[in-house]
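Reminder: ligand-aware prediction takes two inputs, not one.
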Amino acid sequence: MAKDNGQTRAKKDEPSDSPEPRNGLELGSGFEIVAREDFSDVTYLLEILHPAMAKAAKPGQFVIVIAHEHGERIPLTIADFDRDRGTVTLVIQAVGKTTREMQQNCRVGTKLFGLVGPMGVPSHIGGAAKVICVGGGLGVAPILPQARAWKESGAYVIGVVGFRSKELMFWDDKFNRYCDEFIVCSDDGSIGIKGLITLGIEQAIQRHPDIDEVVAIGPPIMMKACAETTRPHGIKTVVSLNPIMVDGTGMCGGCRVSVEGKMKFGCVDGADFEVHKVDFDELLLRLSRFVPKEKEALEQWQKDCRIQQQAGELIDQQSSQS
Ligand SMILES: Cc1cc2nc3c(=O)[nH]c(=O)nc-3n(C[C@H](O)[C@H](O)[C@H](O)COP(=O)(O)OP(=O)(O)OC[C@H]3O[C@@H](n4cnc5c(N)ncnc54)[C@H](O)[C@@H]3O)c2cc1C
Ligand code: FES
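Here is what comes back for the chain with flavin-adenine dinucleotide:
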């Protein structure tokens, strides 16, 4: 995992007139990055120009990104979309090789090689009068369009989000706009409730025994904890699952999950599932299958970066001497 010193705050990347190509990111073709914001030293936002996708996107859907010609395909939730600007927004946590490479190279004016979507079944919004929308870690951003859509459906919306500390908090203004109540939890107690996000859910349930549905997005372990919090109350709980995805079209079987004993594909049957019906232990086991390969890819990339940097320094030295 990348280290986060918690000292950075949202930093906007200004558009540049003549962006330099960065490590293979195409400038001539692909999908242009029109805005970037850094929420911390591991979390960053990219806003990408894609009018057709912005028109089609619905809450709960995701895209497959290929950053450059030789890049791997990674699934990312559509954290927001703006039909007027013709853009889709992704919020990414730099956890491994590709997400760190993108963090380093994706700047305003550069282009993503591939952007496929919107994929997956849109979230089912409606039929509930009171809803808790829960976002933790990388789930804070994608829960926002869900909260907005629930609000637009006429529901009473309680937002519950979790951060490690106050400095890492983002979009609180947006959540306050769409949520009737907004509960923040922080690991260090620097803002809101001190403790895990499940404490925020408990508090909301105590205040509102008539909650119809909980929607949660975040790391698998957090979604499992949400499931255990709502289970004794018998509240329907929907989560956005993140199994390993390859093609994203139901062809490879990489994303299969067991739901009530039946095999489902995260990419075409989800990503949303009722969490109390999901075999979560199997999901966690399948997620850990490629950890040695992921570690190897990250180490190789870090080594390549060091070699490139040293070569650049050598060229600079030689040209300053001549
Ligand atoms: C439907 C869906 C939506 C997602 N939305 C977001 C999002 O909005 N923001 C965000 O930061 N991350 C999101 N993820 C997770 C993201 O895809 C992974 O963090 C990314 O693929 C990691 O790649 P890496 O090379 O940087 O790290 P790696 O070191 O390769 O992997 C780090 C961890 O990421 C997961 N992962 C790796 N490859 C994949 C893959 N092909 N498919 C799914 N998970 C993978 C695994 O748990 C792995 O242990 C989503 C995943 C899914 C399935
Ligand atoms: S990603 Fe291949 S079947 Fe879902």
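The CA atoms of residues 22 and 105 lie 5 Å apart. Residues 22-119 form a domain with the Elongation Factor Tu (Ef-tu); domain 3 fold (CATH 2.40.30.10). We will return to this case in the review session.
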